[in-house]
């Protein structure tokens, strides 16, 4: 599943090319990609046709476009997008060709026509395609509501309004409004293992399996350490390690293992070559040389060093 850095790469690719544009047409090729839409395709079409995209915002793994009516007034709604396990938002140019990155990146670029589920046509001739092989993602309209803390709603937002369907999502670690000491205290109040707490999007959003494993390795903490066993200092160290590893991943376009994880131009990110433990089963730990192990924890693979990350 794309995690925070991969989704932010998509947001940054969409922002300069879609904000200010007007939606002129909507193609729904697979209704399963709009199953979250109350009122179905008719409701989605009514909200989008003639609407202007005024901002593209991200919180955690959620993306949304703010919408304005033809007269310029904000509609009070947003077009939400969640990429699920394999979703992609890809751009085509006015000439119909796939936009190409200025510099090639590691990994294959996915076929832009395969698994296309929905397309938005814009007034400059560009097209936003939503591709989704596994069909866990989707797009839908959600009403805007104020953020509970009154701070900017997320990356790319100019105010505190966010979609109602994202109001339950906690702030992520790259959000300036995220209160790391408060998040650390919340983690320490729970009995669950620290990895499951990092993956709980209502506590801190945007962290998935890859960056949880990397952060816990950096903070020398085993995946099943109970939150209640952490000191405040150790909990903060884990959060800061997660933030640092995601910042480094974002700088190189995110982590790509296959063609499912690409930016809006269909290119893969470089960060897979910088991973220390995730996907490194059987390889030596970069820190101590011990063998990296992989175990199944709560139906997910967890990678760790038995020497650096000892059982609590």
3D structure, described in words:
The chain is of the alpha+beta class and 312 residues long. It folds into two domains: 4-166, MutM-like, N-terminal (N-terminal domain of MutM-like DNA repair proteins), CATH 3.20.190; 180-305, Helicase, Ruva Protein, domain 3 (Orthogonal Bundle). Helices cover 22% and strands 23% of the residues. The chain has six helices and eleven strands. The chain has helices at 4-18, 40-48, 180-188, 194-199, 209-218, 232-251; strands spanning 23-28, 52-59, 62-68, 74-82, 87-92, 116-122, 127-132, 138-146, 161-163, 292-297, 300-305. The strands form three sheets. It has a five-stranded antiparallel β-sheet with strand order 2-3-4-8-9. The protein has a four-stranded antiparallel β-sheet with strand order 1-6-7-5, covered by helices on one side. A two-stranded antiparallel ribbon has the order 10-11. Helix 1 (4-18) packs across helix 6 (232-251), helix 3 (180-188) packs across helix 6 and helix 5 crosses helix 6. Residues 99-109 have low confidence and may be disordered.
Bin the helical content.
10-25%
Main beta sheet strand tally, sense and closure: 5 strands, antiparallel
Given helix and strand content, the structural type is alpha+beta
Task: Write out the strand line-up for the largest beta sheet, numbering strands in chain order.
Answer: 2-3-4-8-9
- What CATH first level of the largest domain would be assigned? Alpha Beta
Amino- and carboxy-terminal Cα gap: 29 Å
CATH superfamily of the largest domain: MutM-like, N-terminal
Tell me what the CATH architecture of the largest domain is: Alpha-Beta Barrel
Q: Give the helices and strands as they follow along the chain.
A: HEHEEEEEEEEHHHHEE
The gross shape turns out to be: globular
The CATH topology annotation of the largest domain reads as: N-terminal domain of MutM-like DNA repair proteins
């Amino acid at each position: 599943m794309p995690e925070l850095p991969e989704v932010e790469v998509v947001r940054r690719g969409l922002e300069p090319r879609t904000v200010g544009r007007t939606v002129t047409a909507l193609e729904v090729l697979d209704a399963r990609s709009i199953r979250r839409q109350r009122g179905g395709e008719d409701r989605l079409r009514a909200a989008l046709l003639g609407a202007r995209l005024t901002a593209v915002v991200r919180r955690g793994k959620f993306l949304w476009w703010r919408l304005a009516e033809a007269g310029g007034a904000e509609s009070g709604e947003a077009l939400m997008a969640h990429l699920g396990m394999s979703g992609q938002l890809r751009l085509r140019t006015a000439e119909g060709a796939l936009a190409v990155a200025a510099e090639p990146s590691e990994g294959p670029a996915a076929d832009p026509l395969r698994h296309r589920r929905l397309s938005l046509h814009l007034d400059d001739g560009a097209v936003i395609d939503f591709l989704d092989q596994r069909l866990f993602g989707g797009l839908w309209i959600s009403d805007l509501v104020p953020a509970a803390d009154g701070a900017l709603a997320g990356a790319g937002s100019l105010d505190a309004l966010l979609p109602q369907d994202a109001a339950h999502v906690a702030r992520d670690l790259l959000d300036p409004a995220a209160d790391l000491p408060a998040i650390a205290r919340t983690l320490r109040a729970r009995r669950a293992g620290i990895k499951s707490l990092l993956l709980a999007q209502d506590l801190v959003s945007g962290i998935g399996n890859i960056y949880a494993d990397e952060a816990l390795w950096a903070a020398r903490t085993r995946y099943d350490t109970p939150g209640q066993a952490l000191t405040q200092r150790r909990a903060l160290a884990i959060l800061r390690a997660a933030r640092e590893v995601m910042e480094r991943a974002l700088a190189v376009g995110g982590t790509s293992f296959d063609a499912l994880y690409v930016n809006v131009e269909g290119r893969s990110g470089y960060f897979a070559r910088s991973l220390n433990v995730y996907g490194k089963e059987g390889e030596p730990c970069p820190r101590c040389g011990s063998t990296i192990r992989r175990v199944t924890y709560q139906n997910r693979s967890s990678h760790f060093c038995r020497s650096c990350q000892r059982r609590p």
